[in-house]
Amino acid sequence: MAISPTCQPDITIDDHLDVAHERGLAEDVLDGLTRPFKELPPKHFYDERGCELFDRITELPEYYPTRAERAILEADAEAIVAATGAAELVELGSGTAAKTRVLLDAMAAAETLRRFVPFDVAESVVRASAEALVEEYPGLRVHGVIGDFERHLDRIPPPVPGEPRVVALLGGTIGNFPPGSRRRLLREIAALLGPEDRLLLGTDLVKDSGTLEAAYDDAAGVTAEFNRNVLRVLNRELDADFPLEDFEHVAFFDRRNEWIEMRLRARRACTVRIATLALDVELAAGEEIRTEISAKFTRRRVAEDCAAAGLRLDGWHTDAERRFALSLAAPVAV
Questions:
Q1: Residue 21: its pLDDT value, please?
Q2: Whole-angstrom Cα distance, residue 110 to residue 161?
Q3: Rounded to whole angstroms, how far apart are CA atoms 293 and 83?
Q4: What is the pLDDT of residues 46-66, one digit of tens each?
Q5: DSSP letter (8 states) at residue 35
Q6: What residues have CB less than 8 Å from 38, skipping those under 6 apart?
Q7: Is 48 a domain residue?
Q8: Helix-helix angle 222-237:18-33, to 10 degrees
Q9: What range defines the domain where residue 107 resides?
Q10: Which of 49, 69, 136, 295 has a Cα-to-Cα distance from 212 of 20 to 30 A?
């Protein structure tokens, strides 16, 4: 672990990526692109450019989840803070912490706010948000953690005794994991919680396929560029030679699994060299690489996933149109 220096005493930044992260990318690519059905995990979208593109996506007219989730936070943050007594907020996949400020405002107004723990893969984003937040909230301590959900949750600092903690996984991120991995992640999050702590979970809800597919295939083509950005990451980090212009963006709603799939489809047959791995990947014309699933939920599915992780559903908040939900879950007493 590297503790990155900062000139502000209220900020600590722990970096757990380094060589291990590079190895993780290489392992994911080697595993995913040598399967009969090729796929790449969506966490590799989010380099600095990917984060910028995703921020643009959240402002598109077709992309309702961010607006719906923010509407819930603006309407119910005070009630969520009152129900939890939260003094500490841990946000997994914190990004720029834009929506988080609604919760931090409510915690500050309740005079309970003590510490914010942003957890993200992008160091520059964690550092920038930490520096901004300590200026905005006098007395706030920020302990940033740069890491990977699947490797570093155990590096999150322990809670402060007597200060209830809320661990937030917002934006529907939980839907990017298939059911088995999703429940495993929820169990790992549950391990971070004491008896008075809570999980705050954002989930996109099942709805008509037209609305869902438009949200992942916008008219301006921003999501298509975001999708192709994962190939740009591979070209840069693993010395690959993917011809980005030869891959088209595909997004559709799988009704059986109730999830959106994003894929990249090869417009022509090509052989891609990934020099760092000494790997040649052959793609036929029309062959696809799956880059993301985004599961959609019902209240029952959320409750069942929580129960499988040793959590009980303790609160349910939706926007007026019931497009998105924020749920609170508590550890089951043993």
A1: 53
A2: 19
A3: 32
A4: 888 998 899 899 999 999 999
A5: S
A6: 32, 281, 283, 287, 288, 289, 290
A7: no
A8: 110
A9: 2-16+61-207+297-331
A10: 49
**pLDDT tens-digit map of 235-266:** 999 999 999 999 999 999 999 999 999 999 99
Query: Can you tell me whether residue 165 is helix, strand or coil?
Result: strand
Tell me whether strands 311-318 and 324-331 are parallel, antiparallel or unpaired: antiparallel
- Residue 322 belongs to some domain of the structure: yes
Burial pattern 163-194, b for ≥16 Cβ within 10 A else e, equals bbbbbbbbbbbbbbbeeeebbebbeebbebbe
**278 contact partners, CB below 8 Å, separation of at least 6:** none
Residue 148 pLDDT class (50, 70, 90 cuts) = confident
As for how many domains the chain has, the answer is 1
Whole-prediction pTM value? 0.91
Task: Give the single-character DSSP code of 24.
Answer: H
Does 285 reside within a domain?
Answer: no
Q: Where are the beta strands (DSSP E) in the chain?
A: 2-4, 11-15, 88-92, 115-120, 141-146, 165-169, 198-204, 247-254, 259-266, 270-274, 279-283, 288-295, 311-318, 324-331
Write down the pLDDT at residue 125.
83
State the Cα angle at 19 between 14 and 20, rounded to 5°.
75
The answer to whether position 281 is within a domain reads no
**CA atoms of 108 and 114, how far apart (whole Å):** 9
Whole-angstrom CA distances from 96 to 8, 74, 115, 288, 295 are: 19, 17, 17, 31, 23
- The CATH number of whichever domain residue 116 belongs to comes to 3.40.50.150
Partner residues linked to 143 by β-bridges: 12
